[in-house]
Specification:
The chain is 73% helix and 0% strand. It is globular, with a radius of gyration of 18 Å.
Length: 259
């Protein structure tokens, strides 16, 4: 489980690094048509030599993260409160999330080079919202999910600012310089992720209120929306740099995380 977790953190770092770099290119209109989301990151890998091998490795590593989170849900996480019910529930939710990510990466790898190479987060978001709105009380369902995403974004941001991630790291094994670097990466990366997820939730809430699935946005459309603010492309640059920082924090977690 220790090795599975560390492989998973490294895989998460690769995905966020590529998403952040694509977002930077989007900010300066140099994205070359790539999506600034998971599908875009996977397409970036697929274009490289041994891309298929790298995709399968990434998918298996992400599945390792899901398996580790599942073990935490079943047997409890490390730390004095790791066996509490709410902690195990959070681990179960994370296991489901990373299981979905692993499935999407492995599906992309399996269909690499074919028409089934994967859908963008924008298309998936609109399709999910449209189907949900067709259900009885669908507007309330989408609204509830949207509020949940907004709350999750705020929770990620606040935890990052308060440096809650420190308790999960082997800080005693870090030098002073490494500890300061990890703090900067963790805070800036967490704030960027929190703002990004919170904004995705806001767009979903607007879709529910207006009963219009086209108002929902995935990661790519949300990142591009930052360029339409009064700050121009610079807000997206700041978010993109934060996502790259979170990639660095993920790589640090692969080395120093308590498992």
């Amino acid at each position: 489980m220790d090795r599975a977790a560390r492989a998973g953190f490294a895989a998460r770092g690769v995905l966020y690094l590529l998403i952040g770099l694509i977002a930077l290119r989007v900010a300066f209109n140099e994205d070359g048509g790539k999506q600034a989301d998971r599908s875009g990151a996977l397409a970036e890998i697929a274009d490289k030599p041994l891309g298929s091998v790298l995709l399968w490795t990434l998918g298996i590593a992400t599945a390792g993260m899901a398996l580790w989170r599942l073990s935490e849900a079943a047997f409890g996480a490390s730390g004095p409160d790791g066996h509490k019910a709410h902690k195990r529930l959070f681990s179960a939710c994370r296991a489901v999330f990373y299981g979905f990510v692993a499935y999407s990466v492995l599906a992309f790898a399996a269909h690499h080079g074919s028409a089934g190479g994967g859908n963008s987060s924008d298309r998936q978001s609109k399709d999910f919202t449209a189907k949900a709105l067709e259900m009885p009380a669908g507007r309330w369902l989408v609204g509830a999910v949207a509020i949940g995403v907004i709350v999750a974004g705020g929770w990620i941001l606040v935890r990052a600012v308060r440096r809650k991630f420190r308790k999960h790291l082997k800080t005693a094994e870090m030098s002073h310089r490494v500890r300061r670097t990890v703090d900067v990466l963790g805070v800036s990366g967490g704030v960027a992720r929190g703002v990004l997820f919170g904004t995705i939730g806001v767009f979903a809430l607007v879709a529910a209120v207006r009963f219009d699935p086209d108002k929902a946005k995935g990661m790519d459309d949300t990142l591009r929306a930052f360029t339409q603010t009064s700050a121009g492309p610079w807000l997206l640059v700041a978010i993109a740099v934060g996502l790259v920082a979170f990639a660095g924090f993920s790589f640090a977690s692969a080395r120093y995380r308590k498992t």
